[in-house]
Amino acid sequence: MVSFVDVNNMVRWIQRDGVENIITGMVDYLEHDFRRWERFDKIARVASHTPFGVIELMPTSDGEEYSFKYVNGHPSNPARGFQTVTAFGVLADVDNGYPTFQAEMTLLTALRTAATSAMVAKHVARKDSKRMAMIGAGSQSEFQALGFRGVVGIEDITIYDVDPKAVEKFRRNMEPLGFNITVCSGVDEAVIGADIITTCTADKAQNQILATRHVAPGVHLNAVGGDCPGKTELEAEILDDAKVFVEFPPQTRVEGEIQQKPEDFPVVEFWKVLTGAETGRDSEEQVTLFDDVGFAINDFSALRYCRDAVKGTDLETQIDLVADPEDPKDLFSMTSDVPSLL
Amino acid sequence: MVSFVDVNNMVRWIQRDGVENIITGMVDYLEHDFRRWERFDKIARVASHTPFGVIELMPTSDGEEYSFKYVNGHPSNPARGFQTVTAFGVLADVDNGYPTFQAEMTLLTALRTAATSAMVAKHVARKDSKRMAMIGAGSQSEFQALGFRGVVGIEDITIYDVDPKAVEKFRRNMEPLGFNITVCSGVDEAVIGADIITTCTADKAQNQILATRHVAPGVHLNAVGGDCPGKTELEAEILDDAKVFVEFPPQTRVEGEIQQKPEDFPVVEFWKVLTGAETGRDSEEQVTLFDDVGFAINDFSALRYCRDAVKGTDLETQIDLVADPEDPKDLFSMTSDVPSLL
């Protein structure tokens, strides 16, 4: 039997532990796994593109456990009543190849994306960061806000989205939780005085949500929405003046903001900041940029964290996913041996 | 909600419809999908290798539906009480990226592997084939036997395995179903008078289960067990004198028997035989060889067939795998809006 966390139990877990606590705890798992980056089997995610969106598989393994995530990205989905991103994932035992854990990952991906953003900002944003500008108020926005409060200490948020209803939803969800929120009429207004700027929009196009004039010295850019070939958010020149941190270069060069740049554009693999092999922020004036596309190891950490958190509680159920006949060479007997099965 | 066929319901479906009927029906789906081969998004499967085995993801899409299979291969598993191969798979709607169907695929893979072998033999083995030699009596063997009876008309089986208990198991399972079974003391004995030779062993090594002396003119070789880098069953010279049919050359050249041969070793893509673009068997004396490794489209067909067969019956249950908030931009509300969920 495979342990299973469905949508309802994922919701119950989040209600039990709280979004902010979960993201904070997940950062510990992420840091643990990023520090042993070199032990992982790593490939760029395997994408099946269509005119409407993309379906991706994201496998990885540390040699003891294997994980993969199924995830779609369909920017036109919300207009039709569907989620832009839905996902589920699986952990497996490398030793015998059996799956051990399956979970919905639409909510879990929202948590892990915020946790990854917050982890990077914790290490490369200015230590005194208090105000975050958010461009984009979609599904991911509240998770980003809570992650940055829990991990980085952000209290003040300025926010802008082309969809005023989305901004109103963000305010409705976040104000009761104690944030100081300023709704802005455009990007120019939103970025004034920001220590951190998070861009998280979903349009599958080469956009310039943020231009060089929006980026003051010392700002940390958390660029989340550019995560697919042909899907970027930043004016390319922003990259020239920033120290750019990435997860897995072979994937980011195809999917991230740096797809706008040559193959040899200089980037820092973030895991090296954690191990001390590379520096993070070099000065108070430096612009730092996390070109986030989301990598398989992030999901590996998120699945492990969720699995450990729900273990032995009624938040996990069991699904019968692995046929296991008494004699392993006698699979056929399962098709005829009724009494032993029913 | 995602429609789900777990192990128990897969067993109930097989008991309802019968292995031989299911394989025969599945060949129709396979032929339908192989005929429109060019419409599919095709990549070699994505493998994560370890010293003990391999875990693979096998995605494909016809532009309307997407499928993937998770499958492991661990040759040393049976000695430890586990299945060599376990699997599960998913269908998804390409239009919005949502998963629609999930099924256990340990049993379903056994059915689809036999269906694929039988489909190819139906088109390239000699029409008067009646006797099959089987080398290997593991989990897959009974499914192969029933597939070849249902689709090709095989009644007489000679069988050999290094493990006499496995052979005894095969005889115990198959004799009641009306086969004429001859248990042989070695490969040399088993292949005498065979119209078709099926090799289906699991050792992860470059073996020579079959040598040139075993291959008489006119025989069809159904080589199933060589399906991983470093895992082959045939003496390389057998390939030189045979017309070799494969599924997807970029995958087979890495995983199949032809991994023993140069990159430009001539092969025929089997789907072209179905469309008439290539000939199958050219003479009664020609040796034909299906270098089967198993491709993602085979699983696409198998999942579609199973989904259609169980639709609307109590053989499918529903699992809650896709978070779907009322407002698609308000995923966060699911984490707080208890009353609407519970």
TrEMBL record, chains A, B:
<protein>
    <submittedName>
        <fullName>Putative ornithine cyclodeaminase, mu-crystallin</fullName>
        <ecNumber>4.3.1.12</ecNumber>
    </submittedName>
</protein>
<keyword id="KW-0456">Lyase</keyword>
<dbReference type="InterPro" id="IPR036291">
    <property type="entry name" value="NAD(P)-bd_dom_sf"/>
</dbReference>
<dbReference type="InterPro" id="IPR023401">
    <property type="entry name" value="ODC_N"/>
</dbReference>
<dbReference type="GO" id="GO:0008473">
    <property type="term" value="F:ornithine cyclodeaminase activity"/>
</dbReference>
<dbReference type="InterPro" id="IPR003462">
    <property type="entry name" value="ODC_Mu_crystall"/>
</dbReference>
<dbReference type="Pfam" id="PF02423">
    <property type="entry name" value="OCD_Mu_crystall"/>
</dbReference>
